[in-house]
Description:
By secondary structure, this protein is α+β, with helices and mostly antiparallel strands. It is 27% helix and 29% strand.
Amino acid sequence: MSGLNQLALALDHAALTRQAVAQLSDQQADFDVETAYAVQRLLVQQRLRRGARRVGMKMGFTSRAKMRQMGVDQMIWGRLTDDMRLDEGGELALDRYVHPRAEPEIVFLLKKPLAGRVSAAEAMASVEAVAGGIEIIDSRYRDFRFHLADVIADNASSSGFLVGPLQPASTDVANLGIVMRVDGRVVQAGSSAAILGHPVRSLVAAARLAAEAGEPLQPGDLVLAGAATEAVALRAGMRVSAAFQSLGAVSFQVGGAES
Ligand code: OOG
Ligand code: MG
């Protein structure tokens, strides 16, 4: 366990100091997915010890666009904590990250526990509200490059998130147009259908994976279903927005114009 803790501490340190590190799989030949999730758990435990609170989970690589962009072909998940949440319309401090990117997300807010193998109907019955959102991802690895196990250990690149206006759970999220803009210019466009064919399938998978990890989804948890489009690299001064058909829009400003 202490070896895994060392790896978790190295990633935690990288995040705190904004200094990218080498991929763990470069240092350990047998670094596999199971080991990587154990490291992720220890990494997030560090943050919980510093006072952060668990608020849900994020799914990753649930769309072809994301898999293609990052060269990874398997679904992954990570843990969300309250200190990762940014205010809608607020400012992102660029110097808190290594090389952050933004991507549009469909967000589920749960009103009931959801655990194990559930149907899409059961999953939707546990949803309190849905929303459009933006995830800030930031790899702690050099050049934002990694193999599957590396990104899992790094909490699936998760770094921040914004949640747009909450909409009734009855809102149909099957095939919603999504447009991401930087300074008013369209930089990504897609459909929520790109997320496993329907974002609820991501919630179904989240329920199973969270239960398998012994941390079943709870009322009040947020679940990010995974981006439907590629992520966009953030630069000082950018105004980033994501508009979702039926769900409304969410935006933020990239601050910290360093010279
Ligand atoms: C990993 C995170 C993937 C998504 O929405 O697919 C993800 C990464 O791209 O670095 O959050
Ligand atoms: Mg994401």
